[in-house]
Amino acid sequence: MAIELGKLGIWRHYSGVDANFAAEAEKLGYGAIWLGASPGGDLAYVDDLLAATDHLVIATGIVNIWQDEPASIAKAYERIAGKYPDRFLLGVGAGHREATKEYKKPYEALVDYLDGLDKAGVPVSGRALAALGPKVVKLAGDRTAGAHPYLATPEHTRGTREILGSGKLLAPEHKVVLGTDAEEARAIGRATVKYYLGLSNYVANLRKLGFTDEDLEGEGSDRLVDALALHGDAATIATGLRAHLEAGADQVIVQVLNEDPWPAYSALASELL
After folding, report:
1. Model confidence over 46-67: pLDDT tens digits?
2. CA distance linking residue 127 with residue 57, whole number of Å
3. 146-147 and 229-232: which strand pairing?
4. Over the stretch 193-247, which tens digit does the pLDDT of each residue have?
5. What architecture is domain 8-272?
6. HSE of 57 in the Cβ direction (CA atoms, 13 Å)?
7. What span, in angstroms and rounded, lies between the C-alpha atoms of 236 and 230?
8. At what angle do helices 134-143 and 154-164 cross, to 10 degrees?
9. How far apart are CA 138 and CA 38, in angstroms?
10. Residue 174: which of 109, 108, 249 has the closest Cα?
11. How far apart are CA 152 and CA 214, in angstroms?
12. 148 with 91: CB under 8 angstroms?
């Protein structure tokens, strides 16, 4: 890959990332920021983030295929990549059926969307695919630079790497809460994790990873929340994140759930970089 992401990235809602945020992340040593929550349109704010930094990569995590046509996103890609070569990665995905009225046959829709990006000139090396299940993981390996799993565990990372093989990007997201009060940290983690227990694609994937009905009911068991939202001191969290790298990830993407994320970003960069 021409795009160098580094081994540690940040996942954050695109509305919470500005030029100052990007510059501080780069200063700490993070290699990429993945802009979450279906950023779309002309991606004009990406230019500002790249202009404020020297080598940080900005990736979309993800552009939702139901919201923007491939031709329009390709124009945004061409603009950004032309100004900032090898510093923008177009992450695309199908989202989830509960939030999308048009959600039909997502695999076929992804194939069609990638065909559209091909036609519009977006290179395979400049795009990644949100992928959980094996069929879409294989598609990510065949048609893009690689896979960006969300709400993943190291076990999932290991299985994903086996499907992708070597030489393809694997960049899973993982949530963290910096704090040694387990009850308080778990409550913060659960407040985010519980949302995904109403989304069928994530629930199906968690079942494949061995979580039971008891784990998945209500707001989630402690076992589930602890697996999906690592908590503790920086060294403890770093051990959990490092497990993704040991399982075959090229980059692990950190989503900090603390209200002020910077203490966690700083401490984890010290531990992992």
Report:
1. 999 999 999 999 999 999 999 9
2. 13
3. unpaired
4. 999 999 999 999 999 999 999 999 999 999 999 999 999 999 999 999 999 999 9
5. Alpha-Beta Barrel (3.20)
6. 28
7. 8
8. 50
9. 22
10. 249
11. 19
12. yes
Question: What DSSP assignment string belongs to the chain?
Answer: --S---SEEEEEEGGG--HHHHHHHHHHT--EEEEES---TT-HHHHHHHHT-SS-EEEEE-EETTTS-HHHHHHHHHHHHHHSTTSEEEEEE---GGG-TT---HHHHHHHHHHHHHHHT--GGGEEE---SHHHHHHHHHHSSEE--SS--HHHHHHHHHHH-TTSEE--EEEEEEBS-HHHHHHHHHHHHHHHTT-HHHHHHHHHTT--HHHHSTT--HHHHHHHEEEESHHHHHHHHHHHHHTT-S-EEEEE-SSS-HHHHHHHHHHH-
Tokens of 147: 């896979």
Name the pTM for this structure: 0.96
Question: How big is the chain, counted in residues?
Answer: 273
Task: Give the CA count within 13 Å in the CB-facing half-sphere of 260.
Answer: 5
Q: Within 10 A of 25 (CB to CB), how many other CB atoms are there?
A: 25
